[in-house]
Amino acid sequence: MSYSESGITQLLCRMGYVYKKPKLVPDKADTGKQRVFVQCYEALKASKAPKTLFISWMPLIPIIIR
To answer: How many other C-beta atoms can be found within 10 angstroms of the C-beta atom of residue 62?
Structure first.
């Protein structure tokens, strides 16, 4: 099964999800973990991977849409 970007947006809306503006990151964030995440995410973006969405109830866990 595959979804278009607008299709997944409509599906999430029907399921009750809403867009919320991101909040500021607290100053106690682990910079080492952030650095590792950014490196992994940049590698993912550079690859030929499909689009990646981040959903608020699963922070920093990518969902791949094919």
So the answer is: 15
Neighbours of 65 (CB within 10 A): 14
Tell me the two tokens of residue 33.
């973990």
- First and final CA of the chain: distance in angstroms? 9
Rounded CA gap, 62 and 60, in Å?
Answer: 6
Q: Which domain holds residue 35?
A: 5-21+30-65
The answer to whether residues 66 and 2 touch, using CB atoms and an 8 Å cutoff, is yes
Span 4-45, pLDDT tens digits: 888 888 888 898 888 777 777 667 778 898 899 889 888 888
Q: How many domains does the chain have?
A: 1
